[in-house]
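Protocol step 4 of 5: obtain the predicted structure for the target chain.
Materials: sequence only (see below). No template structures provided, no constraints applied. The aim of this step is simply to have a reference model before the mutagenesis design in step 5. Sequence pasted as it appears in the construct record:
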Amino acid sequence: MRYSSVEGVRLLDFHLDRLEQSSSVMAFAMQRDEIGQAIHSYCAQLDSEVVHRVRLTLSPKGQINLTSKPFEAPESPLKIGLSGIRVASGNPRLGHKTTLRGIYDRARAVARAHGWFDALLINERDEVTEGAVSNLFLRLDGGWVTPPLSSGVLPGVGRRDFFLNVGATERPIYKRDLKRAKEICLTNAIMGTQSAVWSGG
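Step 4 output (structure tokens):
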């Protein structure tokens, strides 16, 4: 989550919506109002001169842990490429943000090794799904498109915000689409929407 003294916790309701949905699916105890209050109390103690990246984890029994660190905005346009890492589109865990981040950590390592901001995953059908830390949007044929959740995509908070404020169509995306896209954008809740450039892979 992104917190600043000017805007508060950006898209907090979206974060809580997703947490509530995942908690229901995974049978985690969650008290939405209490968690919201805990987030506000925690953020009120942070340095008001700094933009913060706030991380919340929820245990199966409903215990929460909050940590933070300063947020440094990445330089735009962001460089991206393919990670070479495959996911199974039918894996239900891909639809939930959890601490089991093995494939995402591996993709992040690929990105760092190439000097990219992020590295994209692909599924068993050669569909591009998402980055290790971002959702993907392309401007193709006059409109914005993004991989559907059925490709094996996390329903990102930034993704939801893009749908509401810009609009996009869900459709499978392939490597060839990355090469012919008029524009590429990456989204996540912390950095918002950023322009990106295809670097290969």
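Step 4 remarks: The chain has a mean pLDDT of 97. The chain has five helices and twelve strands.
Proceed to step 5.
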